[in-house]
Amino acid sequence: MPAMNMPPLMKRLYKLEGKVLINKTCLSITAIQARYFHCLLMTTISLLLLISTAQAQDYDICSPDGVALGGYDATSYFEAGGPYFGVAEFVAEHNGLQYRFANQSNLSRFNAEPARYLPRYGGWCAANLSMGQLACPDYTNFKIEDDSLLLFEHSGFTNGLTVWNTNPLEYRERADQNAIELLGESFTP
After folding, report:
1. Which among 11, 28, 58, 66 counts the fewest CB atoms within 10 Å?
2. Ramachandran bin of 120, using left for φ above 0, alpha for ψ from -120 to 50, beta for the remaining angles
3. How far is CA 159 from the centre of its chain?
4. Helix (H, G, I), strand (E, B) or coil at 187
5. Residue 80 has pLDDT above 60, yes or no
């Protein structure tokens, strides 16, 4: 329909390039806004699915396959040369996670005292937790402090262990406080 034969309202609508016409009314949604809205909607849906999936499972987001510590033997962190990988043959289930061990002896030690070998703060990065954030650790970046296994993030230029070692007493106190708030009332430092 040529623009000169249109009523005035239609002429204005016809001239609106990059706009969406629906039932002879104009919605001012550009293509960029539509893509942004689509991305925002898809991200929201993905996050909701991720949250509902995580709540339906006992294990945490750092162990999406249900294997704790990235498959490392929890007792090996307390041995010289550790940590080292466990194997699927020697497994213990604890709090919905599967812990793997290198041999029967390590599995037996864990089963006798699991609390001794479990990572403090549920396996989250201790340095990030002290700053009020949750971050998955690098399972080879660790420290045994006061007979507790602490795990730390190591990404890019940031090494959580290096940060922690600048003032371990202050970071430990802040991490203990934040753990109760972020990890729940059931957490006991």
Report:
1. 28
2. beta
3. 17
4. coil
5. yes
With tokens 């699991």, the residue in question is 114
Cα separation, 77 vs 116, in Å, equals: 11
> Which tens digits make up the pLDDT trace of 89-142?
999 999 889 999 999 999 999 999 999 999 999 899 999 999 999 999 999 999
Return the residue matching tokens 């005035």: 8
Q: Return the SS3 of 160.
A: helix
Domain boundaries of the chain, sorted by first residue: 3-56, 67-117, 119-189
pTM of the entire predicted model: 0.67
Q: What is the 3-state secondary structure (H, E, C) of 8-54?
A: HHHHHHHHCCCCEEECCEEECCCHHHHHHHHHHHHHHHHHHHHHHHH
Q: How far apart (Å, rounded) are the C-alpha atoms in residues 4 and 156?
A: 62
